[in-house]
Write a structure and sequence with these properties.
heterodimer, A: alpha/beta, four-stranded antiparallel sheet, 7 helices, 36% helix, B: alpha+beta, 2 domains, seven-stranded mixed sheet, 18 helices
Amino acid sequence: MIRLENVSMEYRLKSERVEALREVTLHLREGSFEAIMGPSGSGKTTLIQLIAGLLTPTTGEVIVSGERLSQLDDAKISAFRNRTIGFVFQFFNLPNYYNAMDNTALPLVFAGVDERHRRERARALLTEFGLEDRLNHKPDQLSGGEAQRVAIARALITNPKIILADEPTGNLDRDTGTHVMELLQRINRERGVTVLMVTHDEKAAAFAQRVIRIEKGELA
Amino acid sequence: MIRRRDYLRLTLQKLALRKRRAAFAIVSVALGVVVVVTVNSLMVGVRDVAVKTIWTEEIDPDVIRVYAGDNPYEYTMTPDEEKRKAKKRMQFLTESVFDEIRAWPGVEAADRPVTVQPVSISALDKRPRGVGEIQGVPEALLLRYVKDRSLVAGISNAIPLVVGEREVKLKFDEKRGRLDEDPNGEASWLKRDVTIVLGDNYAMVAHFNYDYAKHEYKRVADEDVTARRDELERSYRGMYDMTIFNTTLTLKGRVVGFCPGSKVLMPFDAAELCEKWIDERNRLAARNPPRTAESAVYGESGQRAPKPGEYAEGVVLVKHGADVESVAKRIEDMGFTVATRARTFENQAEAFDSTVHIVKEVAFALGGLILGLACALVWSTTSKTVSDSRVDIGLFRALGATKRDIRRLFLGEAMLQGVLGTVVGMVVGWVLAVGISHWVIGFARQSVFDPEEALLIPDSIFSINLMFSFLLIVGAAVVSLLAGLLPANRAANVDPVKALKRE
């Protein structure tokens, strides 16, 4: 499903060269639930950004669902992200000028889906996640848990094969975080969506089938 | 691929987030457009009014009016013409000059015009537009307007008169207070005998006032007419012996034809005699030294009055079909100024056109300047939106928006500001132009010399140039697209990883 072959990633920070990932080779099964753990600056987020095609590795190859990401142009990689990847961010990233339904439906705007179908699908997902009475609420009118559920609904709206979650519980209290993790686990089990989650939280990581540890850009 | 409707929605949402800034940019664009649209909507109409009120019909197409001084029909003079005028030596028209012109091929007659005044003509004197003078013209010119030459040949006891078409083709509708076209006017006037009262000092006392606001003539009360006569008489009393000065000579005239304009013409010889009679009467009545001829002003030599045998004006009649302009040129070469119907109209129209052109250029330059500033504002607003939207851009890219989508989104925002500003500016410009048109028409109707011209002035000078409006919108869209190009490219190249890291 997801294969990283000898992937290295280097940044230039001012004049200094920073090696974020070093010769990483990783295989993730379809339908698995994996957590990546490691200290800050170890390269966790870089790893999922490479898998999403937001970054291009300095060396090595990232292959997702049979697509060699380095060979895709901007239009193709954007379409790939839209259809194959769902993002869940630590700070939700829900624009406040959209209500819950419009935020959820946003990826379908970039897929060219008409408004009626977008709203139908967003309503169904939000109802499934218990947010039927929050459809027209703006993000700042939602609790942290509700906002993250909206973000998860948005990640699922295009029926992606993979959900990349970057510290999904990082901005939530313990109970809410647990609820969000249960939701991600349910999605993984019921829909067969591959979930790759970056986290610092051992309790959150416990929901995953496998924990990948990374340190100084290398898999431990 | 984002749907078009969604592009518009996303763009409007982005604009709504920066209402004040966007409104400022839109208002700036609108301001520039208002200047350009207002001027453009009025200029065609203003020219139309000017052309309709240019007084050129008095000049027959085959007649050249010759002047020793400035051409009174000249609207403006170019700097070159001013220089030429300053270099000219002073000279008046004389009999020998007329003799020389008469000898040219293509010239039918050349003489000075004789103006007989004051004079009143029965049937014309109590009408709204009074006639206070008769002009004596060469017989050849008079004969051009005569309907049937036998009418002139048969006259022994009356002076043949040619009356201006404006007088006979209009009849006065007392009820409505207006002059209306009279299709039977010529027929009813031809061969009509009229009484000419030579030396009627009160011929021009108005019996009607024109109400410019209501566009109608109102009869002056009899006591007011008498009061005006008395006032005039009091002003004469100091200069003339009123017993002699009030003496008039009654002659019989017969209408034999019609000429363009509103003048009344009679044969040159008869006019000379009438002029002589009036001059003699005035000389006898004068308490002070007799009046001198009006001095002509021109050239570096200043001014002086014509001596006996010198004339400030002349009339040259060109044979039908001959080249009027080449004769006019020859007269000009002799050092006189000339007015022909064609060149007078053209001169005035050209002068007006050049004024319109200057006004347009100034307005367009000003509008262009404001639009340039507005474009800078559009650029700045779009730039600011891009800077403020980095996280959103990063999110959109992560959710599947292409670079092209992002670029189009911000280009759309810039274009929307430009087009909205243009449309708002156009509407405001049109409304303003309608208001100005209303004011100009009111002003023009009150300032024209002849009330009849006020009837020629249209109700509005406002017009919409559809092609211009279309090009303006397209131009605004293109220019605002260019203004948005740089920020839109910057937005398209925002690194989503860096943008999302801000969170």
